[in-house]
Amino acid sequence: MNFLRFFKSTITYNLAIIFLTGALHCSVIYANSEKGRLLSHINIAHELYLQGLEYAKYGLHDEAIELFEKSLATDPDNIETCISLGDVYIEKRMDAEAIEIFQKVLKLNPDQPEVYFKLGTVYFDTEKYEPAIQYFKKAIEMNPDYKVAYSLLGISYAKSGKYDEAIRMLKKRIEQDPNLAITYSNLGLVYTMKGMNKEALAEYNKALVINPYHEETLFNIAFLYENMGKIDEATTFYNKTVECNSSNATAQYRLGINYFKKKQYDEAINAFEISLMANPGNIEAYNDLGKVYKAKGMEEEAKNYFSLYDKQLKLQKKK
């Protein structure tokens, strides 16, 4: 054997092995470095997300939004971060932004009944009841035990004038939890809207059996009696409402209206004044106070309140 030729071929073979091994080693190092860089980015995104949650918990919404958005800049398809950002948008009443981010979540993963529900609430809060209905229905379709969705779906139907569907949905909610006063009260309100007063009172009374001091039910009963022309009964239940919550501006205002009808002027003045303290934006109360003082023969006081009413009306029109 030619030793020199053997030696050269051996060296060439070994060098090839060395170069191949080096290349593989470099590839592994490169792959590991890329993986490490990716993990580092994910860790940074997660840390920003956790900080955003802390800010959101304490109501610092602008700071939370900034951190969530920075997190998504690094990890744009993180569903948890998208949902948390959407929740803060809802708190800030940034409805268009909330809708956009939740729709993005559904594109990433459509198996999200909670997100369909959240979209429903955004449309519900903006009084766009038809899309709200569709999203609540989808949430229930995906999760038949999504109890609160039944309630909001029922109310959305009622707001859309679909009273029979509303009644059917609220009855389903009652089947799920028969000890919620608010559901009976909502069902009674739908019957009221349909003009079925007897059925409405029956549901209201069921609510009061569960909670005799349920503010919304007491108000709803008072309002029903007022619409029926039963002023004494309406006054009684408006009084019961404000006994539960003296700062209920609407109840105080309606109480003033009914006292005025009963010619109990001092009580009407008191109710209107409390109503204005709770809600200064209800400028009609100034006009009503003027009417009460005029009925009492107190022309100067009446004139002052009518003047206040005119000023507030002009200011409101400017806005």
Keywords for this entry:
disordered N terminus, Serine Threonine Protein Phosphatase 5, Tetratricopeptide repeat, 16 helices, 319 residues, mainly alpha
Count of DSSP E strands?
A: 0
Cα(first) to Cα(last) distance is: 106 Å
Could you name the CATH topology of one domain?
Serine Threonine Protein Phosphatase 5, Tetratricopeptide repeat
Radius of gyration: 33 Å
- Portion of residues in beta strands equals under 5%
CATH class of one domain: Mainly Alpha
Identify low-pLDDT runs: 1-32
- Percentage of residues in helical conformation: over 70%
- What's the story with the biggest beta sheet? none
Task: Note down, in words, how this protein is organized.
This protein has 319 residues and is an all-alpha fold. Among the domains are: 44-109, Tetratricopeptide repeat domain (Serine Threonine Protein Phosphatase 5, Tetratricopeptide repeat, Alpha Horseshoe), CATH 1.25.40.10; 111-210, Tetratricopeptide repeat domain (Serine Threonine Protein Phosphatase 5, Tetratricopeptide repeat), CATH 1.25.40.10. It is built from 16 helices and no strands. Helix 1 packs antiparallel against helix 2, helix 4 (95-108) packs antiparallel against helix 5 (113-125) and helix 6 (129-142) runs antiparallel to helix 7 (147-159). The protein is globular, with a radius of gyration of 33 Å. Residues 1-32 have low confidence and may be disordered.
